[in-house]
Amino acid sequence: MTKQPTLTKADLIEEVLRVTELPRKESETIVETIFESIIDALQKGDKIEIRGFGSFRTRQRRGRIGRNPKTGEKVEVPAKKIPFFKPSKELKDFVNTAATQSEAAS
To answer: Between vectors from CA 38 to CA 37 and to CA 44, what angle results, nearest 5°?
Structure first.
C-alpha cells in the first residue's frame, strides 16, 4: 500500500507565497491567523461557517467508563468538547469529481 501524500501547514504557506507573491513572513502570518481564528472561535463555543467549504463547531461528548488497555482496570473518562467539521455539499462534490476523474485516468 502506498502512503498517501499529506498537505502540511508549511505546504499551505508555500501555496500562499506562490499565489500572492508576498514575503514568507507575511504568508506565514496569514496561515497562522486563519488557524488561530478558527481555534479561538471554537474555544468560545462559536460556529465557523466557510461557504463552499464547510463548517466547524464543537460537540459535547458524554463522560463514560473506559478501560486502561495495559492493566484492564476501569477508568472514568470525563465529558469533554470535541471539534467537529462538516463539509459543504460543494466540497463533497469537488472531492467526488476529482476521485472520479483520477479513476477514469487510471
So the answer is: 90
Alpha-carbon Rg for the chain, nearest whole angstrom, is 19
Residues 6+ apart with CB under 8 A from 46: none
Nearest to 87 by CA among 79, 96, 78, 99: 96
Report which of residues 28 and 3 the model is more confident about: 28
Neighbours of 43 (CB within 10 A): 11
* Phi, psi angles (nearest 5°) of residue 17: -55, -50
pLDDT of 1 reads 60
- Give this prediction's pTM: 0.74
Domains of the chain as residue ranges with CATH? 1-46 (no CATH), 49-106 (4.10.520.10)
What band does 9 get if pLDDT is binned at 50, 70 and 90? very high
